[in-house]
Specification:
Blueprint: E1 5-11, E2 15-22, E3 27-34, H1 41-56, E4 64-71, E5 75-76, E6 81-82, H2 95-102, E7 108-112, H3 113-124, E8 133-138, E9 142-148, E10 151-152, H4 183-187, H5 189-198, H6 211-219, H7 223-247, E11 251-255, H8 263-276, E12 286-289, H9 296-308
Parallel strand pairs: 1-4, 4-7, 8-11, 11-12
Antiparallel strand pairs: 1-2, 2-3, 5-6, 8-9, 9-10
Helix pairs in contact: 1-2, 3-9, 5-6, 5-7, 6-7, 7-8
The structure holds zinc ion.
Zinc ion binds next to loops.
InterPro entries: ATPase_NBD (IPR043129), ROK (IPR000600), ROK_cs (IPR049874)
Protein name: ROK family protein
Organism: Streptomyces evansiae
Length: about 325
């Protein structure tokens, strides 16, 4: 006997991943394609169809009751469309309708990737048991999602919690989003590296000029490298404190490549948080590393779909 399953899709600028997932978050089958992000919209959709086609060949496909999509944003869950910044040909692309068509009219849910990750951390990861949480991803970009009152809070269009593009520096650098002084402009991996290089840091003999290279140099005692991480930590702390003050979260979970720097990020972040989260009701705020690995997007996308047909899920 089959248990009811969900087909989950995690759509990013680099890869399109799919999986069949059961009501406990177990992964039964997988498929993956690179995202042809520079191609036309139909070619990108072709990669999605390819992933779904592979999943349909799995013996468990007959038990699939719904499809859950987590996509790079912005998304518009109310319209069923996506416009991922890094997939230029998809602007207002009707992904929900196309996936429904490709799966024989299964119900399809759509959320932004930050919301999906929050759902995954709340269901099975570091935010489990917390009714009010902010979950963030700090990597090439900075994204996030919120859990409020025990429920994931996607917002009307599925983008709520998009903390990377709130401003923490009123006169700061222009951001590609059109804003100024955004968290992402200070704390993302490429911006940590950009600032270190601009301040005179030189990559080591391996030539690694990424945030990972900056992290290695900071650990070896390079002052400029460390200062760039401190600045990122400060931006994250200010944004987390603001969020906690607005909606009373009691935990912030941080994942993504930059969070892999560990104490190099978390120690100055916790110190800076004391400066920004000052009111009595936010002083107990915890900041912890994410626990879900690279499957967080898939598991979170599944959580949303499971809720819709009364399976379990966050
Ligand atoms: Zn921005």
């Amino acid at each position: 006997m089959h248990t009811d399953l969900v087909a989950a899709l995690d759509i990013g600028g680099t890869k399109i991943a799919g999986a069949l997932i059961d009501g406990r978050g177990g992964i039964l089958a997988r498929a993956q394609r690179p995202t042809p992000a520079k191609e036309d919209g139909e070619t990108v959709m072709g990669a999605v169809s390819g992933v779904l086609g592979e999943l349909r060949k799995a013996s468990d496909w007959d038990a699939v009751r719904a499809v859950g999509i987590g996509s790079a944003g912005p998304v518009d869950a109310s319209e069923g469309t996506v416009s991922p910044v890094n997939v230029a040909a998809w602007r207002g692309f009707p992904l929900v309708a196309r996936v429904r068509e490709a799966t024989g009219d299964l119900p399809v849910t759509l959320v932004g990737d930050g919301v999906a990750i929050a759902a995954a951390e709340h269901w099975q990861g570091a935010a489990r048991g917390h009714d009010n949480a902010l979950c963030m991803v700090v990597s090439t970009g900075v994204g996030g999602g919120l859990v409020i009152g025990g429920q994931v809070h996607p917002g009307p269009t599925g983008n709520s919690g998009h903390i990377g593009h709130i401003s923490v520096d009123l006169d700061g650098d222009l951001c590609p989003c059109g804003g100024r002084g955004c968290v992402e402009r200070i704390a993302s991996g490429p911006n940590i590296a950009r600032r270190a290089l601009a301040d005179g840091w030189e990559p080591g003999t391996d030539g690694d000029a990424t945030a990972a290279g900056v992290a290695a140099a900071a650990r070896a005692g390079d002052r400029i490298a460390r200062a760039s991480f401190d600045r990122a930590a400060q931006a994250l702390a200010a944004s987390i404190a603001a969020t906690a003050t607005l909606v009373e979260i009691d935990i912030a979970v941080i994942g993504g490549g930059v969070a892999k720097a560990g104490d190099l990020l978390f120690t100055p972040l916790r110190a800076a948080l004391k400066e920004y989260a000052t009111l009595s009701f936010v002083q107990g705020l915890e900041v912890v590393p994410a626990q879900m690995g690279t499957d967080a997007g898939l598991v979170g996308a599944a959580a949303g779909a499971l809720r819709h047909f009364g399976g379990t899920g966050a």
